[in-house]
């Protein structure tokens, strides 16, 4: 049975070309016989939510279409996401790397001191950039130009590590 209640989103342009989004809910007011006497409803401003949604869609598009590999790890350095370019460059499908440590790409060409200095700089400056040799899924070694950055919580603790690299 149709209650007659409707929800819809409408775009409304207001003064000086400023766009505003409103979400409107309305329902009929009926008498005891079911005849419509009028409507009641309300609108709320959802402009901020729409802007955030558009920004998220743009960021997701950039992430998916980037020709640079992007790998995101959690605070324990376990992989939480990679983009399609990561798979193209390394040969590892997303499903094979989720939850794993990026060490699975390790080539053995850099020594412990290299990684110690890299991590020291990354933790001090929240970023590091340079060349690293890694290993594809098929075993082939490759040099990559990498940029690592940290995303921190407000309290300063690590939320995510982000690696971007190209072959």
Description:
The protein is α+β, with helices and mostly antiparallel strands. The protein is built from 4 helices and 8 strands. It has helices at 47-65, 84-90, 94-97, 112-125; strands at residues 6-13, 19-30, 36-45, 69-73, 79-82, 127-135, 141-152, 158-166. The strands form 2 sheets. The chain has a 5-stranded antiparallel sheet with strand order 5-4-8-7-6. A 3-stranded antiparallel sheet has the order 1-2-3, with helices on one face. Strand 7 and strand 8 (158-166) form a beta hairpin. The relative contact order is 0.12.
Q: Which helices and strands, and how do they pair?
A:
Elements: E1 6-13, E2 19-30, E3 36-45, H1 47-65, E4 69-73, E5 79-82, H2 84-90, H3 94-97, H4 112-125, E6 127-135, E7 141-152, E8 158-166
